[in-house]
Specification:
eight-stranded mixed beta sheet
Length: about 625
């Protein structure tokens, strides 16, 4: 569930660990004893094939029930046998599971993946991510790696690719060239195009924004039903993004297979839950993102957990620390928790999903918070664990995973303690395997950099462009595009007749493209500046269209706060307060005036950039 105001650009930065890689190399060298045994050929059993091992003496949660003490034998990446005191072949490496619990690899049933998302997820035992909207070209590249060698360093991806939404509706605000569904769109042709792109299922947006204080175009109930029917004719699941209880009722009437959000406006009562059960749907709760919308407390608390923090990279930490703009919701988390309880009581399959990487969430890590929230909503720990393993595998037809059973893929998570009684024990990760390949231990988190000194600028005026790109304080202006993230957008900055022309092209190739003029407020570049004494930024703008102002701040990490603004063919004054941006101004680093979000060529002109009047409150 997302908003356009205060939205964070979700770019995650991969933290490289050459020291850990070097240490791993030395660990792989044979010991003198091993070398001697090999030289003597002392009748030792042949080495086990890669992906062959056993976990012994562990508590086993098989996806649905608990085996108090059992062994699990894996051969060539597939589970071969499960049971107490298994006879193990000679030479099979053994992992001691005593005092630990072995679970199926976790499945996050609602994410938006790109960049390092899949590697980030795998570090936290999430071996499959079900993606609800990403660039189909990127998804195709991931599928190619999965087919080639199993892509052992990343979670598997199952994706809807492009979502189905109305022209100008939810999902069109992020810069991707989304093929929308209008009143004259042929639903079957639209679904066929998605299937040809490789979509594993169809996601339909039923959201007019009213639950978030917005007013967005939305698909009609007739369009929703036509899309669901077209998906079913082609053997695809149809799932629905909903924002309110009324949207959920529309989805049920259209015959979708699942809801991929719950809602905060009002609880779904027992009658709603019965209708959901009769419709044989599943529901992805996404309590993590709802919690972030409602109060924003869960993300920072998760990041502070000592069992979670060492596995987080900088992007994940920034995502968990981020928050949505303040939002007043009628029912809040109490409504969402009551809906979960009613659905579970009616026998509706509830699935665990996070909607990462929305503000307050992070790939991988947030699924462990989601489990805790499901238990808080009334599920037992075993039911919550099923919601993240067997239930999503069954709902999305992933018959090779989600269970610890013979013939299933050896996607496994070993944790210390008993998450079947205390679900937060899933955070105490000992080992992760994907298709029998053990993930290397996560490198320790890099120490936090010391806080940079915070400058406090004096004059309000920043640039009037009478002297080119000169600034009153800070480092100055520079072009900035998504090229540094592998995108293809372009931009040129040209001081012309006492103002700045920003011209370029927003191009597909990165899920959230940008191109524009970046004002670096600090000296040295990107050093933080305290602008809390000012209300915001003001400037003049010219260029017919919708534009974006992005604010970079130290607490946000690589993800800026974003506010759109309008400009016309004639010069107009624009003033944007820090509160409108959804950013705290005490450690600001830069302001980016960007084209978009629509793809295509653009030209924006700005002048008289200054800090707005001093605060009086």
């Amino acid at each position: 569930m997302r908003t356009s105001t205060g939205q964070r650009l979700r770019t995650l930065l991969l933290v490289l660990a050459p020291v850990a890689a070097l240490a791993a190399f030395f660990l792989l060298l044979p010991t003198p004893e091993a070398a001697q045994a090999a030289a003597e050929g002392a009748g030792a059993p042949p080495p086990a094939a890669e992906g062959t091992f056993a976990v012994t003496g562990a508590r086993v949660f098989d996806g649905e029930q608990v085996l108090p003490g059992a062994d699990v034998l894996v051969r060539d990446g597939v589970i071969a046998a499960v049971g107490p005191d298994l006879p193990l072949p000679a030479g099979v490496p053994v992992v001691d599971g005593r005092g630990k619990t072995l679970l199926p690899g976790l499945i996050d049933a609602h994410v938006h993946a790109w960049g390092t998302a899949l590697a980030d997820a795998l570090r936290f035992g999430v071996t499959t991510e079900i993606d609800m909207f990403t660039d189909p070209a990127w998804a195709a590249e991931v599928r190619s790696r999965q087919a080639e060698d199993g892509n052992p360093g990343e979670a598997d991806l199952v994706s809807a690719g492009f979502l189905a939404t109305a022209p100008g509706g939810h999902g069109t605000q992020y810069g991707l060239p989304v093929p929308t569904v209008g009143g004259d769109t042929d639903a079957d042709a639209w679904v066929a195009a998605r299937q040809e792109e490789g979509s594993d299922f169809v996601k339909i947006v039923i959201e007019d924004g009213h639950g978030l204080g917005l007013d967005l175009p939305a698909l009609t109930p007739e369009r929703v039903k036509a899309l669901a029917d077209a998906a079913h004719r082609r053997g695809l699941l149809a799932v629905a993004h909903v924002g309110t209880l009324a949207d959920a009722e529309t989805a049920l009437a259209a015959g979708v297979d699942g809801l991929v959000h719950l809602f905060l406006d009002t609880p779904g009562d027992a009658a709603f839950a019965r209708r959901a059960r009769e419709a044989a749907i599943f529901v992805v709760a996404t309590l993590s993102v709802l919690e972030s919308l409602a109060d924003g407390a869960g993300g920072p608390a998760l990041a502070a957990d000592p069992h979670v923090a060492p596995r987080l990279n900088g992007g994940q930490r920034a995502g968990l620390a981020a928050s949505f703009p303040p939002l007043e919701v009628k029912g809040g988390m109490a409504a969402a928790r009551q809906t979960v309880a009613n659905l579970a009581a009616a026998g509706v399959p509830v699935l665990a999903g996070t909607d990462a990487p929305n503000p307050g969430t992070a790939h991988g890590a947030s699924l462990h918070r989601e489990l805790e929230l499901l238990v808080d909503a009334g599920l037992t720990p075993v039911q919550a664990l099923t919601a993240a393993t067997a239930a999503p595998a069954r709902a999305f037809g992933l018959d090779d995973r989600g269970r610890i059973a013979p013939g299933r893929r050896a996607d496994l998570l070993l944790v210390t303690g008993d998450p079947t009684s205390d679900v937060t024990a899933t955070r105490r990760i000992e080992a992760v395997w994907k298709a029998g390949q053990r993930l290397a231990a996560a490198p320790p988190a890099a120490p936090a950099a010391p806080a940079a000194p915070v400058a406090k600028p004096g004059p309000g005026s920043i640039s009037d462009f009478t002297e080119g790109l000169a600034v009153r304080f800070g480092t100055g202006w520079m072009p900035s595009t998504d090229a540094r993230m592998g995108g293809a957008s372009t931009v040129e900055l040209s001081p012309v007749d006492g103002h700045l022309a920003i011209a370029g092209e927003i191009r597909p190739g990165f899920p959230y493209p940008w191109a524009g003029a970046l004002l670096m407020l600090g000296d040295p570049p990107m050093a933080p500046v305290d602008l809390s004494a000012k209300r915001g930024v003001r400037f003049r703008a010219r260029g017919a269209g919708t534009w974006r102002l992005m604010a970079f701040a130290e607490p946000l990490g690589p993800m800026p706060a974003i506010r759109t603004f309008e400009a016309g063919a004639a010069w107009s004054d624009v003033a944007i307060a820090w509160e409108e941006l959804g950013v705290e101004p005490d450690r600001l680093q830069g302001l980016l005036f960007s084209g978009g979000p629509a793809p295509g060529a653009f030209r924006l002109e700005i002048d008289d950039v200054a800090l707005d009047a001093a605060r009086t409150d």
